[in-house]
Amino acid sequence: MSTSDLSVKVGELTFANPIMPASGTFSEDLSDVFDLDVLGAHVLKTIMHGKRAGNPTPRVCDLQGGMLNAIGIPSKGIDDFRDRMLPYWSDYKAPLVVSISAHSMDEFARLAAEVSLPGVAAIEANISCPNIEADGNAFAMRPDTTAEVMRRLRAETDLPLWAKLTPNTGEPVAVALAAEAEGADAIVTANTALGMSIDVRTRQPRLGNVMGGMSGPAVKPIALRMTYQCAHACRVPVIGCGGIATLDDVLEFLIAGAAAVQVGTATFQSPTVMARLIAELSDWMQAQGVTSLGEIIGSVQIPGGEAA
Amino acid sequence: MTLIPSILSVPPSPGVTARCAEARAIVLSNMPVNGEYRLLTLDAPAEVLDCAPGQFFQLLCPVPEGEHPFLRRPMSIYGYDAHAEQLQFLYKIAGAGTRGLATLRAGDTLNVLGPLGQGFTMPDAWQNLMLVARGVGLATLAPLARMAQQQGRSLTAICSARSPELAMSVDLFRSYGAEVIVVHDEDGSSEVPALEALIEARIAAGSVDAFYTCGSRRLLTMLQRLGQKHGIPGEIAMEQQMACGLGMCQACVRPFREGNEVVHRRVCREGPVFPISEAIA
Lengths: 308, 281
Fold this sequence. Notes:
Helix content of chain B: 10-25%
Pfam families (chain B): DHODB_Fe-S_bind
Number of helices of chain A: 8
Order of helices and strands of chain B: EEEEEEHEEHEHEHEHEEEE
Shape of chain A: globular
Binding site for [2Fe-2S] cluster (chain B): 244, 249, 252, 268
Domain FAD-binding FR-type (chain B): 13-122
Protein name (chain B): Dihydroorotate dehydrogenase B (NAD(+)), electron transfer subunit
CATH architecture of the largest domain in chain B: Beta Barrel
Helix content of chain A: 25-40%
Oligomer: heterodimer
Distance between the termini of chain A: 42 Å
Family (chain B): Belongs to the PyrK family.
CATH superfamily of the largest domain in chain B: Translation factors
């Protein structure tokens, strides 16, 4: 049995280990494959206030080293969350993180208030989904809209509030600092990168929505770079997310400064991957004589000093 | 990819009976069946062999030279035998995933996830069954023939193909006691009007309680028409592009009629088998 301490702190929350699912790649359906209580936290698929059908099919396509998706956040709305999902997830020990999104600031703020219920450990503000506005537009594309939406959300909830950023912005550090300044308790780097794929035979886009979010190992260097940038710039913890599939991927993000990591697309390839990563991380810590992940987090060595 | 044991300490969601595992299987054989199809036979652990006809697996296909399939590929179960610890898939090479599958040799390993989804049902009132399918769709219906024999039902299998020699599973259906009727494009017997007349004659003779079909939009529309006219129920196995196969990602939805509403259902989770009357072609 392992004696390594895999626990991590993300702001005021303590997780038994740093492995949690990325929103949109996780649901109660995964309980058919392994005991979901082994996870550090549970992060649900984004909820929007009303019912939504989502995007036309095809909603996914294969890429080299990853995939594109344009699911479009089909949502059963806040009532289904409160009446059905919350009681289900409350039976688990792992803390519950609820991802929310909205088209307007008013609706976003209202939803933040409505999901602030007993049994919810934190709110992840999905201000970065590329699939719900035209051309991938989202609040987290710019520091000013990020600041405004985070200020509105902060006013509505006392729960820990995480801001999930987008790799599609040209100014990730300014966006992260804007979120932090308006009360974000953690930064999640990052959501999917806006992409496109065309079937050359039919000359049609391979997604019903034309464009979609790219994920998987191919986006890992981008997410890792953002994690490093934000961990250096921000005082609040950063949660790494993007292409994580192996133990080395987990360690890379922790070394870059992530306090915890989210695993998404890898679960589609191997639904047991998160359970396996937790076991592998524990074995690795024992083999390396690492007693706490605090020794690893942010331990990146930049030759000749820090890069800008 | 290493195999870790599945832990099932959590009861499945209400109304959902799916139960599956990610497991490593070993290839026993991977042989061409005719000019178009190949049969993959795997040695698979018992934990993935509690299957029902109509269920499917998600296969992590090998990477063929010059191509890069990333997602798993859903594949209907062609045969399963928990005693012999064997699992079979019948496939047609159509894209990067199936080209990868074709590279497998005896002794190779293949990561499989399953069994997934809801299979076919066979209520007691359905004594005289008619199965109508075409091409590789017949592979999906093959395990149904065994189920029909085990439950003492009479089965007529109408197997459609481009030419008579390409009609799949004919011998298999006969071995389970089914009456087999082959229809094909060369003599026009597979055309909807000819097929519909053939089925109408069977219905007139009073020998059809339920239909089973798979995939084809043309056949679905025809069976919906016949079903509505004569009050005959039935089930269809449907396809959609998938990512996770478990119900998490919501990629594989299709529209269905539910009363006066049109609702989305996940092919991987609520399906792949649905009532013919609710399906939308």
